[in-house]
């Protein structure tokens, strides 16, 4: 099962609006329909604002894919699961749609590797995973 939620600029940092279950097509539609630009305009009138964010969650394995917008047409795509985290900054909406489709197809580990290999990607992996990875390469 997959669900998604949204966070608007006037929400507290820990507040989201649960949107319910979603499939791949619904997720792509939700991304395209999310009012990133309108929310950025609204943020200018607020003393404190959060980033407009849409997040998708895979409940069987607890992976999360989030997209937030830093400024018009500039996004950060964040993937987290199994102790791994990666964030990629992009202006390419086709990259984001591809990430959503791969996330929903079950290829989340491959999506992580793809994102982590992009220039400028920021990753965080648990220490144990790093140690295991280091020793498995030397075998």
What brief labels describe this structure?
single chain; 139 residues; alpha+beta; seven-stranded antiparallel beta sheet; 5 helices; 7 strands
How would you sum up this structure in a few lines?
The protein is of the alpha+beta class and 139 residues long.
What features would you describe in this structure?
The N and C termini lie far apart (37 Å). It is globular and about 50 Å long. The chain has one domain (2-137). It has a seven-stranded antiparallel sheet with strand order 2-1-3-4-5-6-7. With 139 residues, the protein is α+β, with helices and mostly antiparallel strands. It is built from five helices and seven strands, in the order ββααββββααβα. α1 (24-33) packs antiparallel against α3 (93-105). β3 and β4 (63-71) form a beta hairpin.
Strand content: 25-35%
Total DSSP helices: 5
Largest sheet: 7 strands, antiparallel
Rg from Cα: 16 Å
Large-scale geometry: globular
Give a topology summary.
Blueprint: E1 2-7, E2 17-21, H1 24-33, H2 36-43, E3 53-58, E4 63-71, E5 74-81, E6 84-90, H3 93-105, H4 108-116, E7 122-125, H5 127-137
Antiparallel strand pairs: 1-2, 1-3, 3-4, 4-5, 5-6, 6-7
């Amino acid at each position: 099962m997959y669900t998604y939620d949204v966070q608007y600029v006037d929400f507290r940092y820990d507040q989201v609006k649960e949107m319910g279950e979603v499939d791949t097509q619904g997720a792509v539609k939700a991304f395209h329909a999310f009012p990133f630009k309108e929310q950025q305009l609204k943020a200018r009138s607020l003393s404190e604002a959060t980033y407009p964010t849409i997040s998708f969650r895979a409940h069987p394995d607890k992976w999360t894919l989030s997209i937030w917008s830093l400024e018009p047409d500039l996004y950060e795509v964040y993937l987290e699961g199994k102790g791994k985290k990666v964030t990629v900054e992009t202006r390419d909406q086709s990259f984001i749609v591809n990430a959503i489709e791969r996330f929903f197809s079950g290829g989340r580990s491959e999506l992580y590797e793809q994102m982590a290999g992009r220039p400028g990607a920021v990753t965080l992996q648990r220490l144990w995973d790093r140690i295991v990875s280091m020793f498995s390469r030397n075998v």
